[in-house]
Structures are given as structure tokens and as C-alpha cells.
Amino acid sequence: MEYLSTTAAPATAIARIPGIIASIEAFSPTIKTWGVVGFCWGGKIISVATSTTDTPFKAAAECHPAFVDPKEALGIKIPLCMLPSGDEPVEDVKKFQENLSVDNHVETFADMIHGWMTAKGDFEDERKRGEYERGYKRSMMPVSLEPEHSE
């Protein structure tokens, strides 16, 4: 856990974002609009990074986010998709969504384990692979393009 409060602390990770974006834009100057996806601890980083008025991101997705804190949802400034697993605390996820004031899509994949979208994904099991594919597609779809938001 020391790693999460030092090297991977939100403030440390967020401080790196402008330099990463500048490097990519220098290499590919046509890229000017940014979205972000975070898995596990990356979800925590997204909750904090998208709470600033100068966030460079236009939309975000969190997949099986670690340490879901409903208070962090209060500050999020951009559309957010959150895909928790069945291992994330149900009440924290519910309160997090209630606290969001931006367009959002929160969908719990209750029968998936924490890490199902990354290293712990079971791609040999057809159903689990299908849920991974559904989660991947869902996380890449802007909230504004959800079926219930379109005509």
C-alpha cells in the first residue's frame, strides 16, 4: 500500500498528465481532444484528475475502479462511464453515481471479478470473454451516444 501513497499517489500521477499529453501532441499534432480510461487504481486517478476545472479530458471511463469514494464524484466535471465488478462495494458505487452531476453511465458487472477488464480477464470462458467485449465497447462509447440519450 505504500506504493499507492507515494509513487502512484493521485497527485504524483496527475502531475505527469500535462507532460504526457504534450509529448503525444508533439508527435501527433492533429490530436487535440482527449478521453481517458482507467483500470483499478487508474479509476481512482481519473476520479481525482477529472475534478479540476482545467482537466484536459472531455470524457472518461473507469473499469473495476479501486477504492471507490462517493465524495470524489461530487467534483467530476466531464461525462463519466464507470464499470465496476461485483467485487466493488455496492453501496459506495451507488452513492458515487448519486453524487455525479455530469452525464454518466454506471453499470455493475456483478458476476465479474475485480480485474476482469485487464490481467484477471478469463478469455477462455466464452461468457466472460463476451462480458469483457461488452465492457470494452461500453467504455469506449460516449455517454451522449447511449441508446437512452439518442433519438
Please supply descriptive tags for the structure shown above.
single chain, 151 residues, alpha/beta, Rossmann fold, 4-stranded parallel beta sheet, 4 strands, 40% helix
Give an account of the 3D structure.
With 151 residues, the protein is an alpha/beta fold. The protein has a single domain (35-143), classed as Rossmann fold (3-Layer(aba) Sandwich). The protein is built from six helices and four strands. Strand 1 (34-39), helix 3 and strand 2 form a beta-alpha-beta unit. Residues 21-126 form the Dienelactone hydrolase domain. Pfam families: DLH. One of its GO terms (molecular function) is hydrolase activity. InterPro entries: AB_hydrolase_fold (IPR029058), Dienelactn_hydro (IPR002925).
Summarize the entry for a quick read:
With 151 residues, the protein is an alpha/beta fold.
Task: Report the radius of gyration as a whole number of Å.
Answer: 16 Å
User: How are the strands ordered across the major sheet?
Assistant: 1-2-3-4
Instruction: Give the fraction of residues assigned to helices.
Output: 25-40%
The fraction of residues in strands falls at: 5-15%
SS content category: alpha/beta
Give the overall silhouette.
globular
DSSP, total strands: 4
The CATH superfamily bears the name Alpha/Beta hydrolase fold, catalytic domain
The major sheet is characterized as: 4 strands, parallel
Query: What oligomerization state is this entry in?
Result: single chain
In the CATH hierarchy, the third-tier topology is known as Rossmann fold
Number of domains: 1
Count of helix runs: 6
GO molecular function: hydrolase activity
Domain Dienelactone hydrolase: 21-126
